[in-house]
Design a protein that fits this description.
Helix content: 10-25%
Structural class: alpha+beta
Pfam families: FlgI
Largest sheet: 6 strands, antiparallel, barrel
Number of domains: 3
Keywords: Bacterial flagellum, Cell projection, Cilium, Flagellum, Periplasm, Signal
Strand content: 35-45%
Radius of gyration: 32 Å
Strand order of the largest sheet: 4-5-6-12-8-7
Subcellular location: Bacterial flagellum basal body
Distance between the termini: 31 Å
Organism: Actibacterium mucosum KCTC 23349
Number of strands: 26
Number of helices: 7
Subunit structure: The basal body constitutes a major portion of the flagellar organelle and consists of four rings (L,P,S, and M) mounted on a central rod.
């Protein structure tokens, strides 16, 4: 009985759960505003100035091609020339163009090698146009690459720390084109919940209407609340959003258990419940070993030497925690606490929770990553 709680508690090395009610949260932290979003940018360029750690031209011919094109544009004719620089690397440059970014503002970029370069440490990114999904150039990146890794090698050993083939350039791109979006002309604006929930959407609707003192918000579904900008009597949509984004709302969460098998982590909400259930667990070990023997004929017998297989097979079942029972309405946090006290292995713990979920006794969404 009481040992079931002890049995179910060691599924992972780290267990986190919520034991207090979630406090009020700002609307800006619960929703995304329609049209107020970033845009992904990507570019293809060259990093130069590497200390012999660049691409091998024979293994990365695209590096030689873009380098030749760049030199041609700068007035250097390299047609028919053979050059094998070791200080150049082809890279992808990525960034996010934030909402309302204006021409001339600067954004951070990430630089990643795509060839066989060993390190980008100390390199400089040459002017690289960055395109959006529509194929238009919205920013141009250039600057010194800051790499978070390091590598060193000798004849018999190589040591690598971090990822030296990727780095960042803070404020490394300058915005050249703005996103065409008339935000000030909106008459209605949708608030998209990051975690759709009817209760939370209803509370947002009630809180916004209470803030403006009139029905200006309408819940359309579990993930959308529509705001009537004209009904707010604000001078602009920006003024309306600036007023409502700091309104506090208490979100409602689903009962959910999230299990990370790699790190041994369980995260659960306080609303997770387990019905009355009994659990028995044990470990079965199968061991097979081969010890072949060599048999030789007697002297002058004229026979052949043969290898005789010898196999030893054993099956052993470890003594488990036995049969344990959890009473109905027990919270999962109490079950996990008991399992941790027993020292159940992480693999066994996750199997136990899966089995309880399959039995229909775990009343929560079960997510395994």
């Amino acid at each position: 009985m009481k040992y079931l709680i002890a049995f179910l508690s060691s599924i992972f090395s780290l267990v986190l759960w919520s034991s207090v009610e979630a406090g009020p949260v700002r609307i800006k932290d619960l929703v995304e505003f329609d049209g107020v979003r970033g845009n992904d940018l990507v570019g293809y360029g060259l990093v130069v100035g590497l200390n012999g750690t660049g691409d091998g031209i024979r293994n990365a011919p695209f590096t030689e091609e873009i380098l030749a094109n760049l030199l041609e544009r700068l007035g250097v004719n390299v047609t028919g020339e053979e050059f094998r620089p070791k200080n150049v690397a082809a890279v992808f440059v990525t960034a996010e163009l934030p909402p309302f970014a204006r021409a001339g503002s600067q954004i951070d970029v990430t630089v990643s090698a795509i060839g066989d370069a060993k390190s980008l440490l100390g390199g400089t990114l040459i002017m690289t146009p960055m395109n959006a999904a529509d194929g238009q150039i919205y920013a141009v990146a250039q600057g010194s690459v800051i790499s978070g890794g390091a590598s060193a090698e000798g004849e018999a050993e190589t040591v690598i720390e971090g990822v030296p083939t990727a780095g960042v350039i803070p404020a490394g791109a300058r915005v050249e084109r703005e996103i065409a979006f008339d935000f000030s002309g909106l008459s209605r604006l949708r608030l998209a919940l990051r975690t759709p929930d009817f209760t939370t959407a209803g509370r947002i609707e009630a809180a916004v209407n209470a803030e403006f003192g009139r029905p200006v918000a309408l819940m359309l579904d579990a993930g959308t609340v529509e705001l009537n900008i004209e009904a707010t009597r604000a001078r602009s949509p920006a003024h309306a959003l600036g007023r409502l984004e700091n309104v506090l709302v208490e979100p409602q969460r689903k009962a959910r258990v999230v299990v990370d098998q790699r790190s041994g982590t369980i995260v659960m909400g306080e609303d997770v419940r387990i019905s009355r259930v009994a659990v028995s667990q044990g470990n079965l070990t199968l061991r097979i070993s081969e010890a072949p023997a060599v048999v030789q004929p007697n002297p002058f017998a004229g026979g052949e030497t043969v290898v005789v297989p010898r196999t030893d097979a054993q099956i052993r079942e470890d003594i488990g925690t036995g049969l344990a029972e959890v009473s109905g309405g027990t919270s999962l946090s109490e079950v996990i606490a008991g399992l941790n006290a027993l020292g159940v292995s992480p693999r066994d713990m996750i199997d136990i929770l899966k089995s309880i979920k399959a039995a229909g006794a775990l009343h929560a969404e079960f997510v395994v990553r």
